[in-house]
TrEMBL record:
<feature type="transmembrane region" description="Helical">
    <location>
        <begin position="205"/>
        <end position="229"/>
    </location>
</feature>
<feature type="region of interest" description="Disordered">
    <location>
        <begin position="236"/>
        <end position="270"/>
    </location>
</feature>
<keyword id="KW-0472">Membrane</keyword>
<protein>
    <submittedName>
        <fullName>Uncharacterized protein</fullName>
    </submittedName>
</protein>
<keyword id="KW-0812">Transmembrane</keyword>
<keyword id="KW-1133">Transmembrane helix</keyword>
Amino acid sequence: MSVYSIPKSSYIVFTEFQNIKGNVVTSKGKKFEILGSTNIVAIYFNSTGNISLYTEESSPQACKLVHYRDFSPNCTKIITISGPRTYIMDGKYGENSCLVTAFSLGYIQTIEFGAMNSSYYGADGIDQYTFFKIFFFSAQYTNFTPLYPNENVSLKYEIKTTNEDRSLKYTIEDDSDYKAYYLTEKSFKKLRTGEDNTDIEMSTIIWMSCMIVVVILCIVGVVVLYVFLRKRRPAHSRHEDKEEPTQPTTNGESSQEKYSEPLVDNADQV
């Protein structure tokens, strides 16, 4: 078994992992299974942790990965591509879209459609800025956001690999077979890989918290109203104590019946 210490803000993408199994361990000692039957092949480390890799085969097995350092956590969604592929990713105004590639030997050709603010980073976390942003000869990731609302923008990636590259071909998006997860000190959850937020547990917690706040506010409002009415009631009672004995009125009604509505506002004038 091989164990590797992974720093915070790392994004690990496995490209060759046949017959390889593994675990990730949080800084708090919690262990989660990766690779194998889990199909978890990409992990973002939101805190420091360890990766342990092993095989049950009698002979050594190849295992390759791309380790992105200082990976931006501010992605609205992340699409991860291993191996060769042509892919077009649409951008939405106000969102920061991230496209990640992973391979060993090859190159990338990119084309930007529309006005956007984009950055290209190598695995070392350094901005791979070129004037035309066309060719890159190593794995990299891009984050981009449209500059103007109501404008359609997209980023095209054409990834080519050599015959010597054995990277498994897959794309992590929406409900794909392969998955990307993120690791914290205590948990291991699915990354946002599409328009919807797949972190359902967090959405449920937020919804329940909002409902609890609404219920508490309603209870407080009822209590305040009750106390307010209780404070006003003695003044009414004092007013009634000062009323003259009931006398018939010209239309046959008593003065108590005539002034059946409380006159609390005028109590001090009686």
